[in-house]
Structures are given as C-alpha cells and as structure tokens.
Amino acid sequence: MLTRRELLATTVVAGAVQGLGLSFAQAQTLDMLKMFVPAAPGGGWDQTARSLEAALRATKAVNGVQITNVPGAGGAVGMPQFLNQWKGQGNALMVAGMVMVGALIANKSPFSLTQVTPIARLTGEFLALCVPAGSAFKSAKDFADALKADPTKVPVAGGSAGGSDHILLGMIAKAVGAQPAKVSYVAFSGGGPATAALLGSQVAAGISGYGEFGEQIKAGKLRVLAISADKRVDGIDAPTLKEQGIDVELFNWRGVFAPPGVNDAQRTAMIAVIEKLAASKEWAETCKRQDWTQITLTGADYGKFITEETARIGGILKELGLA
Predict the structure, then answer these.
(1) Which of 29, 249, 272, 281 is the most exposed place for a label (fewest CB within 10 A)?
(2) Element (H, E) at 21
(3) Alpha carbon 292 to chain centroid, angstroms
C-alpha cells in the first residue's frame, strides 16, 4: 500500500500531467508542444526553437512541435500576442532571452519578461565582432580606433535596438572613449538579414552570437576580430576583447517561458520536460555543435534571475543612452 506521502506525491504528478493534456501512462511524452518565437526565422531564438524541437523529438519527450514566428522590435511586437492570445496554455513555450529584456526597455514597451512564467534558462553565448573577409580592420584595436575617431562612420549590424548586440557596441564605445549615443548601429529583426548586410559590405562590422556567423566564418567570408568572453573559447580561433586592450565582456543567454495564467501543475510538468531535455546527451551534442554553453536554471531561481537581469539591463541601457 502507498503511504500518505507517496499518495500525495503521485497525485501531484498526475495533476501536472493532466494539466498538459496527457494520460498518466504517457507522462514522459507531450503530445503537442507549441513554441512561440518572437523573431524572424534564421536568428538565434529561431535556431534555439528548432534545436529544441529536434532534441525533444529525439528524446521522445514530444510527439509533435508547432513553431510560430512573430518578428519585430526584439520581441516587443510578439510579446503582447503571447501574453494575451496564448494565456493559460500549458503546452506552450516562448523562446526569448537577454535581447528581449533590452529591446522591451529600449522600445518603451509596457511589458516585460517578469509578466510571463519562467520555465528555464538554457544556454549562454558570447558575442562575436566580425567583419567581411576583405575588411581593412585586422584587429579589434583597429575597429576601436576607428570608432573613437568617429563612431558615426563605423556602421555596425546587429539584432534589434536595445538587444545584446547593441549593448555590446555601446560598451565597446564607452571603453575606448567614444560616445555610445553616437554609434551607428543598424538594427535587423534576425541574424539572417544582419549577416546578409555584413556579407554585402553594407556595414563595416557585425555583432552577433558566434553561432549565427559560424558558417560564413568557416567558409572564409567573414573574419572574427574578437569575442566578448572573459577568456578564449575552445574551438574558436579568436582573441577576446580584453586581450586587445578593450575592457569589456558580455554574456548573452536564452531560455523558455510559459504564458501567464498557467497553473502550478502545468508549470511543474513543463519544467520537468525541460530539465529532462537539459540532462540528455542529445541536447549536450546540440549545444556543442552550436557553440552554446549550457547554463540551465529553472523554476523560482530562474524567476529571480529574470527580475535581477531586467533591473541590470535597464541600468546599462540608461547609462549608455539607449533608453
């Protein structure tokens, strides 16, 4: 016979599973997961969503995945839709990260990530400062010197205004003595368009996650001047900004959120699905292939992180004149 404690534990798990629309026997498999990506296809959030889909299918955690892309303003366009139209859906997740925190602030949105349900922080990624292969900039110092001389004449492509790419450019400008508010930042809604502008030499440089530039770097079409890590990263042939006398480092992160209005049972069940994924060899292989660092943080700890990160990024944007 079950003890009272065992009976209560079984009841909680069963309730969580029911909240996701599963039978108890199917507790390890979600029939359909809906993923909301508030960005265009091809960018970092979209890559994360599609990598999650592949790994979840491989581990048989889901039977099907439906991905919806709603691009614009670093997530500021999609956020209201996720908050209102997806409210209470226990089988739905939004992929977002540091970029959205900054973009919502920079766009003076009335919304923030503190309004959705934190499930898990998944990956972290240092950013790469890249130039076309034929660029006259041979080092980050060359780039910094030009930026200091006249920041308006060094157009840099990146993600949406107020995102991690924009923040890094502002931090570099400040570190080398240029005025952050005067940098020429060209914002794009996804990594694909930003890379295209860089390849077409429409801009002097580009900033994004290394994974988004990876294929073009390997093909010899782009060069990495520096990465925003605190130390060199295995497998990436590039120095850090700090090595080149620019005292800046920045860490981008991505994670998943459930809509507002989900109950505790649904939240618990979704966290369990993601924790199982994060511990799988399939996800480890995915992160290695994409040059992502696993920094899993779930539940209440993730919620605390989101609150602190929102305050931190708001301060950075205000200091750099971006908010």
Answers:
(1) 281
(2) none
(3) 10
Six-digit token pair at 54? 């592949």
224 contacts: CB under 8 Å, gap ≥ 6? 128, 129, 130, 210, 213, 217, 236, 237, 238
Count of the separate structural domains present in the chain: 2
How many Å apart are CA 90 and CA 113, to the nearest integer? 17
DSSP state, 177? T
CA distance 203 to 199: 9
pTM attached to this predicted model = 0.71
Sign of the CA dihedral with 301 first, then 302, 305, and 306 last: negative
CA–CA distance, 100 with 192 (Å, rounded to integer): 18
CA nearest 17: which of 317, 270, 229, 192? 270
Identify the residue with better confidence: 10 or 293.
293
The type of residue at 30 is L
What average pLDDT score do residues 17-34 get? 58
Tokens (6 digits) for 157:
């492509």
Q: Which is it for strands 222-227 and 117-132: parallel, antiparallel or unpaired? A: antiparallel
* Domain range enclosing 235: 126-251
